[in-house]
Amino acid sequence: MKIFRFDKEVGAKITKYNSDLAIYTRIIKTSEPSILGCMYIEPNGVVGYHEAPVPQLFLVVQGEGWVTGEDRKRIFVKRGECVFWDKGEWHESGSDEGMTAIVIQSETLNPESFMRIKATE
């Protein structure tokens, strides 16, 4: 499991097209078909421990919560951070207060080509 950032602090100012006060953060480019979805985890909700059928990118866009990898250790995640699980990796996610995430699934995800890994705390 890897945790990345996509918050505005790691983005780039948009200077083309007479743009002002706008920032763009690249997330992913795929060469194979992808599935994009939105996941709503309600307060005290859990997406149970399971194996990723394909590489998955879980982008937190609202709220906060936790994720685990194969070690089942909970790691806090918040808006502007995302988690990458590779195919076959066991994981779980949940939230005490509620969390919304965009989920991208594709055989060819490589988030490191665009995004910055979150520094360990």
* Portion in beta strands: over 45%
Total count of strands: 11
Describe the largest sheet: 9 strands, antiparallel
Number of helices: 0
Give the overall silhouette. Answer: globular
Order of helices and strands: EEEEEEEEEEE
InterPro entries: Cupin_2 (IPR013096), RmlC-like_jellyroll (IPR014710), RmlC_Cupin_sf (IPR011051)
Protein name: Cupin domain
Pfam families: Cupin_2
Q: Quick gist of this model?
A:
It is built from no helices and eleven strands.
Walk me through what this model shows:
- The protein is an all-beta fold.
- The strands form two sheets. Strands 1, 4, 5, 6, 7, 8, 9, 10 and 11 form a nine-stranded antiparallel β-sheet that branches. A two-stranded antiparallel ribbon has the order 2-3.
- It is globular and about 45 Å long.
- The chain contains no helices and eleven strands.
- The protein has a single domain (2-117), classed as Jelly Rolls (Sandwich), CATH 2.60.120.
- Pfam families: Cupin_2.
Features:
121 residues, mainly beta, Jelly Rolls, nine-stranded antiparallel β-sheet, two-stranded antiparallel ribbon
SSE arrangement:
Layout (H helix, E strand, L loop, with lengths): L1 E4 L6 E2 L9 E2 L10 E7 L3 E7 L4 E13 L6 E4 L2 E5 L4 E6 L3 E7 L10 E2 L4
Antiparallel strand pairs: 1-8, 1-11, 2-3, 4-10, 5-9, 6-7, 6-8, 6-9, 6-10
